[in-house]
Design a protein that fits this description.
The chain is an alpha+beta fold. It has helices at about 5-15, 20-40, 50-90; strands at about 95-100, 105, 110-115, 120-130, 135-140, 145-150, 160-170, 175-180, 185-190, 200, 205-210, 215. It has 2 domains: about 5-85; about 95-215, Immunoglobulin-like, CATH 2.60.40.4070. It has 3 helices and 12 strands, in the order H-H-H-E-E-E-E-E-E-E-E-E-E-E-E. Strands 1, 3, 6, 9, 10, 11 and 12 form a 7-stranded antiparallel sheet that branches. Helix 1 runs antiparallel to helix 2, helix 1 packs parallel to helix 3 (about 50-90) and helix 2 packs antiparallel against helix 3 (about 50-90). Residues about 1-20 have low confidence and may be disordered.
């Protein structure tokens, strides 16, 4: 009975790919040794297996074993890096992060950070509620200076508390030349790790990727 190197390679690789645990590797190695022993006991005395075949099978298993251990090591390193990243994010809690995430409005003014397109002569903040309904359009200076949004509707009445999407339209004369979500500051209350990276939870429950944050500042009184 002969077990080819290719056959063993395929079977051992399949087994190793299903787990990164050392116990599984040990089990596979013991199975390999038993197969090798049976192979030697049942070889044809008139046509013995070449020693090169044994060497190939040993090298194949050793390569698979090393690859599985390497993958496990990389996974452990990735988990540790994520933990380190979360530790660094701890210093962000309580600070105000600037991003273009939806705005949670609860009656307090929100600091916007407009960035009109180059060449714009005017700017408008377009406010929509959580259902996408237009609630107001508010003229802004065509500058990058911070702007305090008071949360008023088209009639000047205070908007109800909730989450709103704010878009900055850049105008050149009467022509619209750019439209994009406007950045604003919101307090960070939580940082969450995950496969997609670190997520920050802002005041009001709005979530934003940590990589989307463009600035941090201390809370403003």
């Amino acid at each position: 009975m002969t077990v080819s190197a290719a056959t063993f390679s395929a079977s051992s690789a399949s087994a190793a790919s299903t787990t990164g645990q050392g116990t599984k590797i040990t089990s596979d190695f013991n199975t390999f040794l038993r197969m090798l022993t049976v192979q030697m006991q049942n070889q044809d005395p008139l046509n013995p297996i070449d020693s090169t075949d044994y060497a190939v099978q040993l090298a194949t298993f050793s390569g698979v074993e090393q690859q599985v251990r390497t993958n496990q090591l990389l996974s452990d390193m990735q988990a540790r890096f994520q933990q380190m990243g979360m530790a660094e994010m701890a210093s962000w809690i309580g600070q105000e992060a600037r991003s273009n995430a939806p705005v949670f409005y609860d009656g307090d003014p929100v600091t916007l950070s407009p960035n009109p397109a180059q060449g714009a002569t005017g700017a408008v903040v377009v406010v929509r509620d959580a259902q996408g309904n237009l609630v107001s359009r508010e003229d802004l200076p065509a500058t990058a200076a911070p702007y305090r949004w008071l949360g008023a509707d088209a009639a000047g009445n205070r908007l109800p508390s909730g989450i709103y999407s704010l878009t900055l339209e850049s105008l050149q004369g009467e022509n619209l030349i750019d439209s994009r979500p406007i950045e604003h500051y919101a307090r960070v209350i939580e940082a969450r790790g995950g496969d997609a990276g670190t997520k920050l939870v802002l005041h009001g429950g709005v979530e934003v990727s940590a990589s989307a944050v463009t600035a941090l500042r201390l809370p403003q009184g």
